[in-house]
């Protein structure tokens, strides 16, 4: 089942912070975050695994609440380059390389 | 190094025709995934290979869709008797191994069925 992302869209001024949420109705093994710019491929940002392991970029942080089946992506001191659509992808089975089930995305616009 | 490549970048076909979409994963990546993305939506999982075998094809919408990866590297997604509803961007991704997590996406093939 598709995870639910919120908000659907957000507009920020450069330097402001944003939080994007991802919620699932099923128990999660891992949550993957991607950013996609218009006409381009999704780019990996972070993966959060059941048990607390995280892999990702230094300037991006995220949390994973296994009990609530939720994840949040934190974008601080936003830059113009952060603009794009953010997707969370979830894995609900036990394997780490299963196909991802993506949410509908959160559109982020950063204004100067 | 080279990323995931997909060919063609654009494909326009007529309803009822057969199409093949190719994916060349990152060298050494054993896991390969196919997704499709419709306008305004997130990628939708189709099928995933570990090596040469399809480990999970539960996302293929019907038996008109088929994918192969005969030598464990390049993969081809095949669509028979195309329908207008098949129009989408077909994305391929690869990852280093089972459990490695991070999937690297290719630029996609935009398929338009007239």
Structure commentary:
The complex is a heterodimer of chains A (112) and B (114). Chain A is mainly β and 112 residues long. Chain A has strands spanning 4-6, 9-13, 18-23, 30-36, 43-49, 54-56, 61-65, 70-75, 84-91, 101-102, 106-111. Chain A has one domain (4-111): Immunoglobulins (Immunoglobulin-like, Sandwich), CATH 2.60.40. In chain A, strands 2, 4, 5, 6, 9, 10 and 11 form a seven-stranded mixed sheet that branches. A four-stranded antiparallel sheet of chain A has the order 1-3-8-7, with no helix packed on it. In chain A, a hairpin with a 4-residue loop joins strand 5 and strand 6 (54-56). Chain B has 114 residues and is an all-beta fold. Chain B has one domain (5-98, 105-113): Sandwich (Immunoglobulin-like). In chain B, strands 2, 4, 5, 6, 9, 10 and 11 form a seven-stranded mixed sheet that branches. Chain B has a four-stranded antiparallel sheet with strand order 1-3-8-7, with no helix packed on it. The mean pLDDT of chain B is 93. The chains are: A mainly beta (112), B mainly beta (114). Chain A binds chain B through residues 2, 30, 32, 34, 40-44, 47, 49, 55, 87, 89, 95-105, and chain B through 4, 31, 33, 35, 40-48, 50, 56, 58-59, 91, 95, 97-108.
